Amino acid sequence: MNATMQPDPLELFEASPPFTRTSCRQIPASRNASTIIRLHPLTRQKESSVEIVGDESQYRIVLPLTGIDPRSVYVFATPRSLLIEFRFRKMVSHPTIHGFVTENIKQRISREFSLPGEIEQGTTTVAVCGDSLYIAARKSQEEEQRPWSQLVHFDTRASLGCV
Fold first, then answer.
1. Any domain includes 116
2. CATH code: domain of residue 80
3. At 148, is the secondary structure helix, strand, or coil?
4. pLDDT in tens, the chain (163 residues)
5. What's the domain count of the chain?
6. Count of alpha carbons within 13 angstroms of residue 118, beta-carbon side
């Protein structure tokens, strides 16, 4: 834990050996993993795979961000799903006889992962490690929760070369 008593976003990944901060390219599969799914995302770059592992206590997702600025990524959690949204903005100037016409292009790509079981509110953590987004969400112990949704905040300073 850090000084503000917030859990380190990578702690959930480090709990399952052999994950380390220096080898953050793949999710470690626990011996009791019940779900392993590999998908191919819609990105602006070539195809890359998403890794999803569900074990008895949590869901873990690693999503490559090759060519995507982590500051344009938003993660939303609900009891049964994780929604990852990429927002892109671009301005293009078109010359005309009397000056320039400016075109604003806004794009959104949404990826929703529907989970087989519910997750606990406030337990979803997100971290950027290298060119990947790591998401961990603890499974709920309750039968059924009240509806909720949450924007999950995460630190993107590492992607800018700071921290």
1. yes
2. 2.60.40.790
3. coil
4. 444 444 444 444 444 433 334 444 444 444 444 444 444 444 444 445 888 888 889 999 999 988 888 888 999 999 999 999 999 888 999 999 999 999 999 999 999 999 998 999 999 999 988 888 999 999 998 877 789 988 898 887 765 554 4
5. 1
6. 14
Dihedral sign computed on CA atoms, order 158, 61, 12, 144:
positive
Q: For the chain, where are the alpha helices, taking DSSP H only? A: 11-14
CB neighbour class for 43 (10 Å; exposed up to 12, middle 13-18, buried from 19): middle
Say whether 108 sits in a helix, a strand or coil: strand
Are the CB atoms for 12 and 57 separated by under 8 Å? no
pTM score > 0.70 for this model? no
Sign of CA dihedral 6, 63, 78, 157: positive
